[in-house]
Design a protein that fits this description.
Strand content: 15-25%
Distance between the termini: 19 Å
Structural class: alpha/beta
Order of helices and strands: EEHEHHEHEHEHEHHHHHHEEHHEEEEE
Number of helices: 14
């Protein structure tokens, strides 16, 4: 089937579409961990795999939030399941279970015939436990829908993913009659999460509230007053993005120490609410100095920013959000972003070349254009990177 062919019939169903991560996971591993922000579709993905590939008689799905685990241990459930012929145990929301990493280790060691797949929405607590599961669990991290996935899932197109080099060489092909801007603005507002459209904003705000008011405080050992400061910090960032952090000023506004502000930003980032653009001084991914703070994705901009949405921020957030899945995106001293030696300046249709004059491997990323030429690349095509 040619790239970009529109499938017959209505849109694809949420329950049957395979996300990008579905094909990246090595499902033959004995222990698999899938992390990611709330709402990006982790539960749907593992249930898809279970339903489509495994026999029901020896497979079991449970959620660690179930009341059953108030009085029962995961380890005991695994023991009983194996005695009854169980082979595949799927555990959702594992971070809701106390001492989960210790029991997973024991389950792995005691039952070599048992495959264990688990998910966790709070990557904060997951990261604490992953060290305990080294050499046992194969860990994967999942993000929300790319623009490509959104088109495939909700509008029935069959677009492939393209590498960054392919995008820069203008190899993203679209079928006759396809108009990306017929769908792009809707994706920016309500397309990153695989939610039903009729209740999208309400569901998104619920995700924000649970992440900030429950997930982070519960697993970072915070009290109620500290949780309020997290929400206050997110509100400040939402009104100011792209936000160049002044730690001293934020500490004063929140009435906390400078160290606390840096910790709070990291917590909110790990929960999938913001994204921090760093430089390359750290030498290792994620350890550089924070240069700017964005909301994690464009849907959050529209949900939290309301009437204060600024289109330049939307464009930069989309670019950062889509490219960071497969690339290390860092700040540029002369432009907006730098990736693997490439420099990018992001703007609208009238954006010129002045900012990147004399710079090798530099590109102007323009919104509001369907096709590119030379070093001018359409913004929407970067949504096909995964």
């Amino acid at each position: 089937m040619p790239a970009g062919t529109r499938l017959k019939g209505a849109t694809l169903k949420l329950e049957t579409y395979h996300r990008y991560m579905y094909h990246q996971i090595n499902w033959n591993n004995r222990m698999i961990g899938l992390t990611g922000p709330r709402g990006v579709g982790k539960t749907m993905l593992i249930l898809q795999y279970l339903k489509e590939n495994l026999p029901r008689e020896n497979s079991l799905y449970v959620t660690a939030e179930d009341f059953y685990f108030v009085e029962h241990r995961l380890l005991d459930l695994a023991d009983l399941f194996v005695k009854q012929g169980g082979k595949h145990l799927f555990i959702d929301e594992i971070h809701r279970y106390k001492d989960w990493s210790k029991e997973l280790k024991l389950m792995y060691d005691y039952h070599p015939e048992l495959q264990i797949v688990f998910t966790g929405s709070s990557v904060l607590d997951i990261h604490k436990g992953v060290a305990d599961l080294s050499r046992r669990a194969s860990m994967y991290h999942m993000q929300g829908l790319s623009f490509r996935e959104y088109l495939n899932m909700f509008h029935g197109y069959d677009f492939p993913a393209y590498s960054l080099d392919d995008i820069l060489q203008l190899k993203v092909t679209i079928p006759a009659g396809f108009r990306p801007f017929q769908y792009f603005s809707d994706y920016l507002k309500q397309g990153y999460y695989p939610f039903p459209k009729n209740d999208y904003e309400n569901l998104l705000l619920q995700i924000v509230n649970v992440s900030i008011e429950s997930d982070i405080p519960q697993y970072a050992g915070m009290n109620v007053s500290t949780a309020r400061k997290l929400k206050q910090l997110l509100a400040v960032i939402a009104k100011s993005v792209p936000f160049k952090p002044n730690i001293s000023s934020l500490a004063s506004v929140l009435n906390v120490s400078r160290n606390s502000v840096a910790d709070y930003c990291l917590y909110i980032e790990e929960a999938g609410m913001i994204a921090q653009l760093r430089d390359d001084t750290g030498g290792i991914r994620g350890l550089g100095k924070v240069n700017k703070i964005y909301l994690d994705n464009t849907n959050l901009i529209y949900a939290l920013g309301r009437e204060g949405v600024e289109i330049g921020n939307v464009r930069e957030t989309f670019f950062f959000n889509q490219l960071r899945v497969n690339q290390d995106v860092i700040t540029s001293s002369v432009s907006d972003f730098k990736i693997d030696g490439y420099t990018f300046e992001v703007g609208g249709r009238k954006k010129g070349q002045k900012q990147i004059e004399g710079i090798d491997n530099a590109f102007v990323v323009k919104d509001d254009i369907e096709y590119g030429h030379g070093n001018v690349i359409p913004l929407w095509t970067f949504g096909f990177n995964y």
